[in-house]
Batch of 2 targets.
Target 1
Amino acid sequence: MEVTENDVKHSAKKDLNGCAMAVAAKRQFHATGMIVSPSVAYVVKHDKAIRFQLPTSVQKEIVSFDRGGGFASGTYQLNYPKKSQRIGARAERGLSSGSREPNKGKRRFYHVTTGIRAVIGGKKRD
């Protein structure tokens, strides 16, 4: 999928439906709507939506764009979700490889990126 300078000019920061990637995808897929979050994109055609995973390169451009930098024009790829990430896929979580007990006592540290658009299904960000 190609994002052009014209797509960037007609886009809005921190807008799930109107960012540069959404404008370009809507134009190229002839979609009735687009939703682009920091890691997932939905192409809406009439009454159906197709979900795509965004590669790291697109995620970085989205963060840059939402924080006031530009969105570099160029060719980007939208990826279909892996089988394990598809809706309805069975998730086996909590067990580390080779272990039969949940990961008890292990702390997980998460970094939350601020100053960008909302995450679908997530809390509102600044």
Note: The longest helix spans residues 56-66.
Target 2
Amino acid sequence: MFKKIDHIELVPRDFESSLLFYMDTLGFSLVSRYKLDNPVYSEAALLKCNEIIIELLNSESAFSSAPANCKYGYRLQAWEVDDMSEVLNKLETKGIKPIYGPKDLGDSIRVETKDIDDNLIEIRQWK
């Protein structure tokens, strides 16, 4: 059902310093950097080292009144699947429903759900 961890999302306190840290110190390459039309995050950057992908999300504040998944630090884990419909059907038989999506993003289909501790899990099928 699940193939692999697709990527890990982080919300750093200092977006530019974190970009430099992952690229210059840890040897990640910048895959893409783009603006977001989102009230919480202004931009994102995808960084890759071998098979590891980190997505940094830029935020201008500490979100003192924001939901837990919008704070600095770890945001979610993303899992890649071959067949989104099959995965969603199997999860539904276990009582697990998406809290977001499925959303067709053009190059992929994305769903978010939560584990039993309310940690976000993204499920993505690349086209």
Note: Strands lie at 2-11, 29-35, 43-49, 52-58, 73-81, 100-104, 108-114, 120-126.
